[in-house]
# Entry
Amino acid sequence: MRKAEHTGPTKSSRRDFGRELTAMGMAGAIAKATSSVPTSESTVLVGEGGQERSVNQACDLLIKGGTVIDPSHHLHAALDVAVKDGKILEVSRDFPEDRALNVFSAEGRIVTPGLIDLHARVFEGVGNSVNADRYCLGRGVTTVVDTGSAGYTMIDGFRKYVINTSNTRIFALVDIYPAVDIGITSVVPGRKGIMQNLDWMNPQLTAKAAEKNKPAVVGISVILHEYVTGPRDLEVLKRALEAGEASRLPVMAHIDATYSPLPDVLKMLRKGDVFSLCFNNHQHGILDANGRILPEVWDARRRGIIFDVGHAKDRFSFDVAEKCLQQGFLADTISTALSNNLVNGPVFDLPTMISKFMAIGMSLEQTIESTTIKPAQVFNYGLELGTLRPGNEADVGIFDLQEGQFEFVDSSGEKRTGRQKLVSKAAVCRGKLFINEI
# Structure
């Protein structure tokens, strides 16, 4: 690592990005970013509860001159974000630099609430999990939900050695399968049918482990893939739902290439449960033979089922996603299903996922909404995330929105070309600034 000029914050490469930058304070130039949506005084978030700014109120960090996009408050404007004591102090125009201990220039950049990845594997050292500080926080993701790297036999260790020691804000789902991470090894020889032994799936022990590890644990996870469940997928799901009921938590079902038809699976899910991997192009997907969305999928949405993308290695199809978008069906949340065999493609990171969906027709505002306030509403995290509301924990993403011709690839190798690409430049997590030097 090297120090920035002007006694600024220490910069870190991706390799050592996980280290907290303790020497903040780079002097930033006063800048006004252009905005496609003008703001008025009524849309500017000044202080907790909207009170007037105190002339004596200083901040620890001022993110100056960026274009703030915060869908939770319908903000898209040139604004400054002030941080004090690890909280958002205010979001406003022309916050005086002389009342900031440290200033970070976001001139010409996009500033958002910290991104939330609703589906990833971050139990580093187990299965194909990634280091969250490097591949999540290092890419602008301040909160990540690990979706089943640990079952009831391993969740204690995951919380103690990873969740509690990471800079990234990590939450976890307890998998109904107790032993090892099977999500990313579901089609590895030797794993076939491993979930057919229902004695392994213990709802009571899973629920007990989830309760013990709250608030870090926010849900239950279950893999529904014919390769691992065989013909017993509905019984496996039933046991996961029993664990969810007992622990009063939602269930994320990884639904892909199931043995049972999708309508049979969907009718078992409850309001608030999550269907992840929703844009896969395998058997029993969400489209019928004519490319139309199944009536049962629309019904599931009306009942309050959450639809999550979860790209993964082979679970995302541009063709399926485009057909759904054309019919007015957007996923509620965009996520990566990231593991360490995907960090160099085709997934890369959550900003790349945002870029992929912009390439097929979603707006920047829609994609930011699907990676901030919408995933913030899926689970009970014990605090308000996905927003720059004053008084909340200071989680902020700072990005370059690059213009050009960018090629993106889905799980089947199909390609789409986009005109914009979102790239992480810095992030604030729990009020601490991390700079991504690429």
